[in-house]
């Protein structure tokens, strides 16, 4: 029963890759130093996996930015604007595709299925040419081979790659290119097939409802790919949900192994066993690759034994449910966590051991690193008993408040058409009002101040004064730039979710629980382990102080309940909807306090609303019913004259526009610059009734967009939506940017808005 992983973390325990990337981008180190750091991390991670009992090591899961971008580079499917046609993609061209550079904008980003990981969207043109380059993968296979362990190459599958791509022209169906993509894959697999025993092709799209254009595509695709990969065998890897509804797509294929996610969808096992090709191996994903709770060994062993009875042990493999990219590296580094809660958890290294121990249990062999199987099972059982019986996880006051909710608590007291008049009179804003999404650059000084305060090296009085100095500076800069609606800049916030979790009951926190979000951007998700409640106001003092510094409207900045839910590691002992409703009530209390403090605008961000949706649309109605209700519960207690904003980014709005409208926020700001306002088409077709702030510059790129570029985007937006309901703002928060580029970009944004405003008023 061979153990393996679908993938592992890239950043390193101490985010070593993040630091090397950012040094390289700044010009502080050369490419050779970056490559050396990457090699060291790969070898370290393979060694960790092997020592933990993983027998088949994944190669190709490492990336400098994103694995879909890596696939684009390997296929040579590079957009013309990057000037690498027919050539290998070097580091500079690679990062220009991801981040922009030399006056060329970056490629679009979007969310990887229902995760907070962002991938770079492939662009497919009608005359797309492919130039296969396997050198990166071959070099990593050679590196891993030095360890003497069996290897498995890991690649995104061709159907998923095509589904996640975008057409460069509206009238072009990108799926027409699938045969050409398959030819490129065949060439790539032919080179890999001689160098490793197994090639894993990830097709998570099988957990979704497949687009009509790819119905039947798997049979054509994999019939040719299986031959091209020989003598290597091919594993078709699926995850994030059940594939039972798409098993017909795999009929007649003789793939060598199939991986299924039995954490998200244990109910699919019988259907998969029935459809499994004769002699094919079945990889059971029984350890959760998406959350930090330890495996319930009893439940996992039941699934394994059921599969063993059906196909025999020799045809089984064991793995986590998906790549361990989505969890932190090692729980042993967490020395400050409560020992009670820590024993309920497992990070990446521990999940590798869990896979190995489950295999040892079934096979009757010694556990990894000499651990006795019986002792491990007893300890696992005791941990789960402790968690299930812990009374501190449930609070009667929180449950009683949920039971007392009424329908009126989910709705604004006055419809938008009426309350917008009151808001305009109160705010006195011009046409195309300018604002930002919330955060401003987090300098080294700001981070040091927060760090010193947490360590106890800075008392509350000095910390408050330094934070107020930062707020004074941000407000002054915004006034000098001429922005119409200001923010306090959020210097006190380490992260838009972690900051709130630190002040809510029911949360705990890690010291090194970093997870990659995109590129070098890492987040440290809080852990929701018990019932959630607000003990005291969380943001009011900072926002009230900021408003006292200016006569311009100041936004109070909050993170919405769905986003706090999705961007945390969530308890799995009750429905997610129940936890989300508890968070919503906490945010509702904060909205009321901000309003009482005189803030005329309150922004409740929900960038994760689309991300949290089930992969199959048939389950959307139930999800969006409670998700939208939670936003409304949190935000819609505001008075008519208080303007409620929300923010969303990096998702396809077309298929959820009705749910966005149901949120009934007065203003929604959204990411739109990379698509050059294409995303606004959904708002036009739906006749979206409220106000919209489409982002007119990409904050994930270091380049400063020109006045003309941003003015052009505003004109595009004005051709799609009523200008009296349009705002001008960046795509997202400015936390990760430097002051020089931020100031230059915002100055250009304000000038672009002034120019287009004048054009529209003549």
TrEMBL record:
Domain Cobalamin-independent methionine synthase MetE C-terminal/archaeal, residue spans? 432-754
Coiled coil (residue ranges) = none
Q: Where does Zn(2+) bind?
A: 647, 649, 671, 732
* Residues that, per the record, bind L-homocysteine: 437-439, 490, 605
Q: How is the cofactor bound?
A: Binds 1 zinc ion per subunit.
Q: Which GO terms describe its molecular function?
A: 5-methyltetrahydropteroyltriglutamate-homocysteine S-methyltransferase activity
Stated name of the protein: 5-methyltetrahydropteroyltriglutamate--homocysteine methyltransferase
Taxonomic path: Bacteria, Pseudomonadati, Thermodesulfobacteriota, Desulfovibrionia, Desulfovibrionales
